[in-house]
Amino acid sequence: MQFGRIELFANKGMPLFAYTARETATGREIRNSVEAATEQAAIAALLNRNLLVVEIREKTAKRGQTKGGKVSLNDLVVFTRQLATMIDAGIAIVQSLQALADQTPNKVMRDTIRDVCSRVEAGESFSEALTRHPKAFNRLYVSMVGAGEKGGVGYWRKFSDGLPPIRKTPSAFAKR
User: What's the whole-model pTM score?
Assistant: First the structure.
């Protein structure tokens, strides 16, 4: 399994805007989405493409429990170890999560990390944000993260050191 490098100062993904527009030349209706820093920037980008915006709205994730799929134990171990390394290096959790999301090849894990990151940015604790993804993070994992939040930064290294090596693990351990 190959893992991408971690860019510590990766840009946060821009918001996604769903729009309905009409081509100025033909009047044909187009429904699509565009990434932009703000709604005004999205409209300006569409106008530059000769599209007249009829409707535009930011696509946002639902704030309830997500329907994300399960992630593999290997992906969870890699995520935890990389997060522990970044936190030990003094990088803030939001920036760490953003970098990990940008570098994660697994779409389910990437979407999960992005949602957790947005929840932490909105004021939820890390462990609270993880509880919204029970298919990815079981109760034991969330409880250990909660203990780490109470125990301080040094706890992350101990937590990640207790994980199995990144290789095939016994099926008994894989049952979460």
Answer: 0.54
